[in-house]
C-alpha cells in the first residue's frame, strides 16, 4: 500500500465498499418486492400463497440480512451526507463511522426478536 | 511548523524568501484562474445533470430514511411482524390515502435513487462502450417497468377483487 494514503485500505474505503454492495443488493430486492406485491392485482390467493413462503424460517433469516443491509446503508448514507454538507464532516468521518456501526449493532440486536422470533417459535415450538 | 508566519507583504517565507520583489508600485501580476470562462471560450454544451443527480441522491436519501425505516417498522416489527401480512392487511392499509401516498413516494424515490446508484456503478466498472450501453439499457428498462407496475398496482388496487 502506498505510504501516506488517507483513504485506500482504511475505514473510508471499506465503508464505501459496504455502502455500494448494500445499495445494489437493496435495489435487486426492491425489483422482486414490487413484483410480489403486484400479485394483489392477480388474486388474494396468489398473493397469500407467495407471502406464506416469506414466513418460513429460511426467509426470516434472509429478511434479517435485508434489514441489516438497509440499516447500514441508511445510517452510512446519513454519514456521507454529513461529510458533504457539514463543515466539520470530513474531519469527523471516522468518529461518525463508528457511531454508525454502534447504532447499527444496537438496532440489529433489537431486531432479533421481532424479525426472527416467529421463526424460532416454528423451529423449536412455542 | 513555522511556515505560516507572514512577512509584511503578506507572502510567506517560502514563497517570498523574506523580502518580496513586489511592492505597491510594482504589484504582482494578476494570474487568471484556470478554466475561467472568458468571452472567447465556447458556450457550454453540457447541463448540470451530474450535479443534479448528486444532489438528488442526498435529498432522496434523507426522505427515504423516514419512509423506509417506517415501512420496516410497520411490516416487520409491530403487530407480530411478518406473520400478520396477507391480502387483508394490504387492503386495510391501502384503504387510507395516507399510506397510498407513502408507498407511492417510497416506490418512486427508492427506484430512482437505486437506479441512479446503479448507473454510477455501471459507469465505474463497465469499460467497453457496448457493455455500458446494454447494461444501462437493461437498467432503464427494468426501472421504468417497475415504477409503472408499482404505480398501477397502488392506484388500481381493488379490495373486492373477489
Ligand atoms: C434508507 C435511506 C437511504 C439513504 C440515507 C441513502 C443514501 C445514499 C447516498 C447519500 C448515496 C450516495 C453515495 C455517494 O455518492 O457516494 C447512496 C448511494 C446509493 N444508494 Fe442509497 N440511500 C438510501 C436508500 C437506498 C435504497 C432503498 C436503495 C435501493 C433501491 C439504495 C441504493 C443505492 C445505490 C445502488 C447507491 C450507489 C452506491 C455507489 O455509488 O457506490 N439506497 N445512497
UniProtKB/TrEMBL annotation, chain A:
TM region positions: 21-42, 54-75, 96-116
Pfam family, one: Sdh_cyt
Protein localization: Membrane
Lineage: superkingdom: Bacteria
Cofactors: heme
One GO term describing the cellular component: membrane
Coiled coil: none
GO terms of biological process kind: tricarboxylic acid cycle
Record's keyword terms, sorted: Heme, Iron, Membrane, Metal-binding, Transmembrane, Transmembrane helix
SUPFAM superfamilies: Fumarate reductase respiratory complex transmembrane subunits
UniProt GO molecular function: electron transfer activity; metal ion binding
Family the UniProt entry places it in: Belongs to the cytochrome b560 family.
PANTHER family, per the entry: SUCCINATE DEHYDROGENASE 2 MEMBRANE SUBUNIT SDHC, SUCCINATE DEHYDROGENASE HYDROPHOBIC MEMBRANE ANCHOR SUBUNIT
Protein name: Succinate dehydrogenase, cytochrome b556 subunit
TrEMBL record, chain B:
InterPro entries in the record: SQR/QFR_C/D, SuccDH_FuR_B_TM-su
Keyword set, alphabetical order: Heme, Iron, Membrane, Metal-binding, Transmembrane, Transmembrane helix
Record GO terms (molecular function): metal ion binding
Signal peptide interval: none
Subcellular location: Membrane
Segments traversing the membrane: 55-78, 98-118, 138-157
UniProt region (Disordered), positions on chain: 25-44
A GO-annotated cellular component: membrane
Superkingdom of this protein's organism: Bacteria
SUPFAM superfamilies membership: Fumarate reductase respiratory complex transmembrane subunits
Segments forming a coiled coil: none
The protein, known as: Succinate dehydrogenase hydrophobic membrane anchor subunit
Species whose genome carries this gene: Streptomyces rochei (Streptomyces parvullus)
Organism ancestry: Bacteria, Bacillati, Actinomycetota, Actinomycetes, Kitasatosporales
Amino acid at each position: 500500500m502506498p505510504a501516506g494514503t488517507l483513504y485506500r485500505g482504511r475505514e473510508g474505503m471499506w465503508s464505501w465498499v459496504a455502502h455500494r454492495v448494500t445499495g445494489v443488493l437493496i435495489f435487486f430486492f426492491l425489483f422482486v418486492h414490487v413484483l410480489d406485491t403486484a400479485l394483489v392485482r392477480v388474486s388474494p390467493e396468489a398473493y397469500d400463497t407467495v407471502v406464506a413462503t416469506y414466513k418460513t424460517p429460511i426467509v426470516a433469516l434472509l429478511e434479517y440480512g435485508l434489514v441489516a443491509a438497509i440499516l447500514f446503508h441508511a445510517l452510512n448514507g446519513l454519514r456521507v451526507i454529513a461529510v458533504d454538507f457539514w463543515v466539520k464532516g470530513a474531519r469527523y468521518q471516522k468518529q461518525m463511522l463508528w457511531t454508525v456501526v454502534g447504532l447499527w449493532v444496537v438496532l440489529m440486536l433489537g431486531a432479533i426478536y421481532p424479525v426472527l422470533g416467529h421463526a424460532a417459535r416454528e423451529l423449536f415450538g412455542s | 511548523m513555522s511556515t505560516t508566519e507572514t512577512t509584511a507583504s503578506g507572502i510567506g517565507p517560502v514563497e517570498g524568501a523574506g523580502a518580496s520583489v513586489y511592492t505597491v508600485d510594482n504589484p504582482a501580476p494578476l494570474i487568471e484562474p484556470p478554466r475561467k470562462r472568458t468571452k472567447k471560450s465556447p458556450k457550454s454544451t453540457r447541463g448540470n445533470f451530474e450535479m443534479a443527480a448528486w444532489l438528488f441522491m442526498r435529498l432522496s436519501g434523507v426522505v427515504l430514511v423516514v419512509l423506509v425505516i417506517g415501512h420496516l417498522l410497520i411490516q416487520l416489527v409491530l403487530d407480530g411482524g411478518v406473520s400478520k401480512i396477507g391480502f387483508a392487511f394490504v387492503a386495510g392499509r391501502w384503504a387510507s390515502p395516507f399510506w397510498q401516498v407513502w408507498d407511492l413516494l417510497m416506490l418512486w424515490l427508492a427506484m430512482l435513487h437505486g437506479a441512479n446508484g446503479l448507473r454510477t456503478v455501471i459507469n465505474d466498472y463497465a469499460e467497453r462502450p457496448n457493455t455500458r450501453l446494454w447494461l444501462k439499457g437493461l437498467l432503464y428498462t427494468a426501472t421504468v417497468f417497475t415504477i409503472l407496475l408499482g404505480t398501477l398496482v397502488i392506484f388500481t388496487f381493488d379490495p373486492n377483487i373477489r
